[in-house]
Amino acid sequence: MVIRMIICFAFLFSSSTFTHAEQKKITIYSDGVSCPANCDAHVVFDKRMNGTEFAYKPNTQYEPCKPNSECRICLESGGKQCLNVMYRGPGPHKNTFDFTPAFYIQACGKNPTQRLLLEMCSSMQKSASRLNTRINCIQNPSKDVCVNIMMSANKEKTKDTEKYKQCLTQGETSYNRGVTKVDMRSEKCAYERYGTGKNSDGKTWRKLLPAACRNNTYVGRDGLDCCSGNTLTDGPLAHECTIYYPK
Predict the structure, then answer these.
(1) What keywords tag this UniProt record (predicted)?
(2) Which of 16, 63, 64, 232 is the most exposed place for a label (fewest CB within 10 A)?
């Protein structure tokens, strides 16, 4: 199970006398080494949307998109709010376009013509502004308030990297036979095998582990995503990344 911190616009229906337009969700995800193509600017989405009016090979009549190729996606039915974007494969969430931080950095640096994307960028920029008033420890690890925070994060990452590499070398099945339940891994060794994440509503999840985050990125507070020190993309992850942004 791949967990992603979902910051999205609800699955909406708008209607008039003659039309019933359907809009899809848009989200952001960054799950470290599990993210394909070094988490470049791309989208993954519900495979059931592929080959429909919402996602198809450009300049075709709804021919399905192939992984690692450009795809024409439409955020709204009727050929509205469309754009071309690199498609990296299926995603886990129904009726959802899941974009990477790199995509949003590019898209939000302009003025998107797609209303949902423009609204998402506006929301992300608002979240970023709150982090901009704090100290960014990922970008400034030598600041007094950041030293212990980043020392602890790097220590956990280094410690977990040994386990991660061993798991990759042995293979998950063999590795998991030789460790305790709490140390078992899944999803190509990047996640816990048995989830220890739990919120106040009783929802549980398998945490992303420290070694799964790429260089200069660190797993968030609840093991949902990797934090990069880029406020635009860390901001929407709510409390997940604030541990790296003390006041």
Answers:
(1) Signal
(2) 16
